[in-house]
Design goal:
Length: 238
């Protein structure tokens, strides 16, 4: 569903802008740290985002950001021009994003294999594992995930308040639900296993998120290719 279908006159711009800002904050927290928002960090200390899972959530949320940017583009460009620009930009971004997701999958898989190998290599490997990954920063991760979930829920509310017809965009609704669900899964993986296994559970969650993101990017790539082909055909016919 395009912005033209919604109608600029019926779109509540302040809520749409608020939704975009909230999504930006989500990605900022996921990729940066809790210190970005000034939460309980000592002066001069900027702790990195804990673990793999929270950072990998940005894969899904960057896809959400692309969807929101596409909607905003519909406010500026005519429908025909928007379709062509969206197809070309989507093709480039989905291809680059897919390559990045594949790299991230292999990074998470490599970290998982290393962790499990060390953990099972009793006694020295286990000692090395416990020294590096045995103490997962669960408190920092909990604070970060709480902020992320709060901002995501606020983003969804603002988007619906901007216009209820956004709920008719099934792709957007499913992607937002997947993003929220993935955030909950990461939080669950941080709290369910024994403390010394949280790092492994966190990497497993990151690996699953990266795979889901790669699948979504493949679908976006296919859709972009079809859009570009359709635009080329329309130009030839014209």
């Amino acid at each position: 569903m395009s912005m033209q279908a919604i109608g600029l006159d019926r779109l509540r711009i302040p809520f749409f802008v608020a939704a975009a800002v909230l999504l930006f904050l989500v990605i900022l927290v996921e990729l940066a740290s809790i210190a970005v928002l000034g939460t309980a960090a000592p002066a001069g200390f900027d702790p990195p985002t804990p673990g793999f899972g929270i950072r990998y959530l940005a894969i899904l949320d960057l896809l959400l950001a692309y969807a929101v940017a596409t909607m905003a583009l519909g406010l500026i460009l005519p429908r025909g021009v928007q379709g062509r620009v969206q197809g070309i930009v989507g093709l480039i971004l989905s291809l680059l994003g897919l390559l990045a997701a594949i790299v991230l999958i292999f990074l998470a898989l490599g970290a998982l294999i290393l962790m499990v190998t060390l953990l099972l290599a009793v006694p020295f490997g286990t000692i090395a594992y416990l020294a590096v990954w045995g103490d997962f920063p669960e408190s920092a991760a909990r604070i970060t995930l709480s902020l992320v979930m709060l901002f995501k829920l606020a983003f969804c509310v603002c988007l619906v308040l901007a216009h209820q017809r956004f709920l008719q965009n099934k792709g957007l609704v499913i992607l937002a639900a997947v993003s929220l669900g993935a955030t909950w899964v990461v939080a669950f993986l941080h709290s369910f296993p024994p403390g010394f296994l949280v790092s492994i559970a966190d990497v497993i969650g990151a690996l699953v998120i990266a795979i889901v993101g790669a699948i979504w990017l493949i679908l976006l790539l296919i859709g972009s290719i079809l859009a570009v082909v359709a635009s080329l055909r329309s130009v030839r016919v014209g």
